[in-house]
Write a structure and sequence with these properties.
mainly alpha, 2 domains
Length: 111
């Protein structure tokens, strides 16, 4: 925070006061934004929470793998099906689309 400056007695007191308040407001805004960024980083830091509750972290990792593995298997299976049914150029052009569709569980549209 910047130190408040004494107004210049020769200048217009209203303009001096407005300039001083603007300077203080900008300084305070910068300080508040910096503090908000630090608070955001501290609140989203998972390492501290994992160290405090390692069993909860292991349970969440297990649950994520349990529910995420079928999505990955479905995506890989969808890509292998498209590789067997078409040319390599067609596979390259539609790989991302097929991956997203297989993850979401949508049927692949015929080419």
């Amino acid at each position: 925070m910047q130190a408040h400056q004494k107004p210049d007695l020769g200048a217009d007191p209203v303009e001096t006061l407005l300039a001083q308040e603007e300077s203080c407001a900008l300084s305070d805004l910068g300080t508040d934004l910096s503090r908000a960024g630090e608070d955001l980083v501290a609140s989203t830091d998972l390492r501290r929470r994992i160290r405090a509750r390692p069993m909860l972290a292991a349970a969440l990792a297990f649950a994520g793998g349990w529910f995420g593995a079928p999505l990955v298997v479905r995506a890989v299976r969808g890509l292998s099906d498209s590789a067997n049914s078409g040319s390599l150029a067609a596979l390259r052009s539609s790989r991302l689309r097929d991956l997203v569709r297989s993850i979401l569980g949508h049927d692949r549209t015929p080419n």
